[in-house]
């Protein structure tokens, strides 16, 4: 499942090539044919990311919602647009490029009430300038649930996935099994700031590298795959060398170093 940085990056990249001009919309696969017909020829005003959700704003206040889910993918064609092949749910052809969407969990035209309902069930997204961290603190500071489960609950904090959960808690020395309500406000503020920084780095680089250049002994862009995280999918903690614990937390795998995190 892509984390929020991937979604924000997709919004930014697609905004650059599609927004501000009319787009041709088709559903080569046919499953979004009615929606595509409604959007076809309209000006795409903007693309917004909220956590793992994308909202495409068209003229006449028409909004399309996309959620990639586990299998959804975008493919951008900067020059020639190839003949459609396979299950392309949506093809948008704009001024400077075409974008294909395959396999999303959701691709739908939203009416204003649906949009309000969708946004109301999302927590603040650390990558959005209008995010209010107090909303996340309000939930976390009252919860007996594990902090590792809370930060991945999209209604508490939107956009954080498994990698950033493991890594942000690790660099702060917070064990994922601690109850949310045991965090101090300072710990929460540090967690929010760390998640913001990590997501922003990921949005910018287009990949997740949480290990610092100092710890890796090389520039972050040169760190080989497999060495880019401290505990996520590691056998040994890259901070202290102790074995990394791995277990199931609310249906998703969790990683932590029992030496570094308490
Ligand atoms: Zn450690």
Overview of this protein structure:
The chain has 262 residues and is an alpha+beta fold. The chain contains eight helices and eleven strands. The chain has helices spanning 4-18, 33-39, 112-120, 133-140, 147-152, 162-172, 185-205, 213-216; strands at residues 21-22, 24-26, 43-50, 53-58, 62-67, 73-77, 88-93, 98-102, 106-110, 244-249, 252-257. The strands form three sheets. The chain has a five-stranded antiparallel sheet with strand order 1-3-4-5-9. Helix 1 (4-18) packs across helix 7. The two termini are 28 Å apart. The relative contact order is 0.13. The structure holds zinc ion.
Secondary-structure blueprint of this entry?
Elements: H1 4-18, E1 21-22, E2 24-26, H2 33-39, E3 43-50, E4 53-58, E5 62-67, E6 73-77, E7 88-93, E8 98-102, E9 106-110, H3 112-120, H4 133-140, H5 147-152, H6 162-172, H7 185-205, H8 213-216, E10 244-249, E11 252-257
Antiparallel strand pairs: 1-3, 2-7, 3-4, 4-5, 5-9, 6-8, 7-8, 10-11
Helix pairs in contact: 1-7, 6-7
Residues 237, 239-240, 242, 257, 259-260 line the site of zinc ion (ZN).
